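Kindly review these tokens for lecture notes.

. . .
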Amino acid sequence: MSVVGLIPARGGSKGIPRKNLAPCAGKPLIAWTCAAARAARTLGRVLVSTDDEAIAAAARALGVEVPFLRPPELAADGTPALPVIVHALDWLESQGEAVEALVLLQPTSPLRRAAHIDEAVGLFRRGGGDTVVSVVEVPHRYHPASVLRERDGVLTPYHAGTETVTRRQGLEPLLARNGPAVLVVSPATLRAGRLYGARTLAYRMAHSDSIDIDDAHDLRVAESLLAAHAPGRGPE
């Protein structure tokens, strides 16, 4: 059975036009994810799911499979991840592929490396989970205990009946999905109509590796972080 990397890369984008092909530290944005996926030892094969011929051509030039074009109904702004992954799973199984897990790798996470992918897949195998999702610790300033709402000019705690905690040490550590940069999910979970199964495990990543690009500011931050690793930063 194989573990298959799936890079979803539709042509449309509101925040950054043609985002998946946007230049990022000297490469198209999608190139960073393609390189990491190709270098991951745990992935038996890597596919790009796109509706866009230019993205397909770029992915093939980067050494990644694009065996089909995604149908338009799975490439709209509001299309969720689940049917896109199931579409790829259907295609793989129609080709006789026995799939142990699918690994969703968003192109908007250029700081995610091969080691992150391999560690997440390793956790999936060791932990006996339905899903492994990459997460990052919530900064204390965004912790629910620190969040306020303003009504009629007056600030009150977002969670009624709680006091605002001013000391970071007094906050319970919480985690948030970081894109996610890596999502490992079993076929059985997908067939049950879910991304996150009853046993979902957390793969922790550093904040510096967890940038998720939504807009031009995020792109500039990613370029700065990538440049900080240069020269010689590879997908590992």
Notes: The first strand starts at residue 2 and ends at 8. Residues 25 and 226 are 7 Å apart (CA to CA). The first helix runs from residue 29 to 39.
